[in-house]
Write a structure and sequence with these properties.
Blueprint (H helix, E strand, L loop, with lengths): L32 E3 L6 E3 L9 E5 L2 H12 L2 E4 L4 E5 L5 E6 L19 E5 L2 H10 L3 E2 L8 E5 L5 E6 L1
Parallel strand pairs: 3-6, 7-10
Antiparallel strand pairs: 1-2, 4-5, 5-6, 8-9, 9-10
Length: 164
């Protein structure tokens, strides 16, 4: 078993150990092959990590997981009083961590920069706009384009609905 990492900062959650899902498969990269664990799983030698997860800070981690689960047609899973995830049936995840004293980003201003945002594709901007407003999003006053629309999730993170 791989060791659990220590927290990187007081507000960062301890990382969980990686659990490979494929065993006995050798993968070779430009730098050769290396063994990931005693389970027979291998990754290309140039691979340092895998299975990235997007984690958003939130004033209410459970509510934000529920919002994104509704937006994407996924399931919300509240693991404890600090961590929740929105998960797809095929394994995609967005995680949310509880942060006391959370301050939402300002956009397009930089007083509290957004640092990242999520874009999702939609077939019809008008239909999708009505749906995200119904589950708790707010349309941002600043709309810089015509093929996408900017909204704020319930915690104030910007996200965009983008035409397919």
């Amino acid at each position: 078993m791989l060791p659990t990492a220590t927290p990187l900062a007081p507000t960062m959650r301890t990382l969980r150990p990686c659990t490979p899902t494929r065993t006995g498969i050798a993968a070779t990269g430009a730098l050769g092959t290396r063994r990931l664990s005693d389970r027979g799983c291998t990754l290309p030698a140039m691979t340092i990590a895998h299975s990235p997860r997007t984690v958003l800070d939130a004033p209410d981690h459970a509510a934000l997981a529920t919002f994104y689960a509704q937006l994407l047609g996924w399931e919300a899973d509240v693991e404890d009083d600090e961590w929740a995830e929105a998960r797809s049936a095929d394994g995609h995840k967005i995680a949310f961590q509880q942060v006391d004293g959370y301050v939402p980003p300002t956009w397009p201003g930089q007083e509290h920069p957004q640092q990242m945002h999520i874009d999702v594709s939609v077939a019809d901007l008008d239909v999708a706009e009505a749906a995200v407003l119904a589950i708790g999003a707010t349309k941002h006053a600043h709309q810089p384009g015509t093929s996408f629309r900017v909204f704020l999730d319930p915690a104030g993170h910007p996200f965009c609905l983008c035409e397919e």
